[in-house]
Amino acid sequence: MGFRCGIVGLPNVGKSTIFNALTAAGIESANYPFCTIEPNVGVLSVPDSRLDLLAEIVHTRNKVYTQMEFLDIAGLVKGASLGEGLGNQFLGHIRQVDAIAHVIRCFEDENIVHVNGSVDPDMDREVINTELILADLETVDKRLKRTASQAKSGDKELIAQVSILEKLQALLNDGKPARLLNTESEETTKLLKELCLLSAKPVLYVANVSEKDIVSGNRLVDQLKTSAQQENASVVIIAGSIEQELCQLSPDEQQDYLTELDMVEPGLYRLIKAGYELLGLITFFTVGEKETKAWTIPKGTKAPAAAGAIHTDFERGFIRAEVTSYDDFINCGGEARAKEKGLMRLEGKDYIVKDGDCILFRFNV
């Protein structure tokens, strides 16, 4: 698995420009609200230099990167939770994604109109957050009313749900997203998953800046970072115009351009890394001459479930996992030498897969 990320933001903040750059989909961007109605979908291979090096060592014939899916979702305006603009479509599309990349305009350009008339990261952030919270509040109010009525029977589970819903209602009424609710209890986690609340989805903010601000940012980025810290969210700085140019260049030309701009890597890489961290994802590898492939799983996944990411039969008939760490595989020049040195381990059903593990699964069905 990879993950599905929705790109959201007010109209004309650069969502489609960034989407084009990330997916090289060539979707035309426009300088007017609601130019994106149905979400454009782009699937890209996640770059990973580790996979390239592993494939080089074993002379693999086919490299398969893990996949990441982006949805460019329609621009949202104040009142979306009540159906204003394209609010209903917007909210419905957000329910389909694993995480939200909230693009915030952090550049000044008098030639590009702003839906609110001025560039203010806090205002942009609040508009979308408020609409998600209002939509969630309606969902929670309805559920609380029904559950409170049913709980009069004395059912302990329903009584516990009422308590959780009341805390959630208070949080939302205070203008805070559902993801800030304390989820230490299993009951709370289960209920939140069942409710499928919009503001419970993990969020990272994408500060869209001009080319001159890509390295050090600007006052608008600093303003956004201060606000994001209040909800434990991260900020990734991207210059949409630079990313568009990069995706049209060859690898060598890309590196020259990045060096010229004093950039270590494209904004795409930073966004992917931030997304993986946000969702708690890691990558393991299957390595061979025929195919070397990257697989994405949640942190904490045990070996049988990781095998199931490849095929359900692998999980059902799991026997053991033959594991070599990425560093050991590279330092030994392959699996055979790592095995000779005793660096290939045999792991059972309780083994928790680590980022970079090179694994051969043994199974029987």
* Helical proportion, percent range: 40-55%
Q: Low-confidence segments, ≥5 residues, pLDDT <50?
A: 25-37, 83-87
Query: Could you spell the SSE succession in H and E letters?
Result: EHEHEEHEHHHEHEHHHEEHHEHHEE
- Determine the mean pLDDT: 86
β-sheet strand percentage: 15-25%
Number of helices: 14
* Outline: flat
- How far apart lie the N and C ends? 23 Å
Query: In terms of quaternary structure, what is this?
Result: single chain
What does this structure look like?
The model is unreliable at 25-37 and 83-87 (pLDDT under 50). Helices cover 42% and strands 18% of the residues. The chain is flat and about 65 Å long. Helix 1 (15-23) runs parallel beside helix 8 and helix 4 packs antiparallel against helix 5. Strand 6 (203-208), helix 7 (219-229) and strand 7 (235-238) form a beta-alpha-beta unit. The chain is an alpha/beta fold and 365 residues long. Strands 2-4-1-5-6-7 form a 6-stranded mixed β-sheet, with helices on both faces. A 3-stranded mixed β-sheet has the order 3-9-8, with helices on both faces. It contains 14 helices and 12 strands.
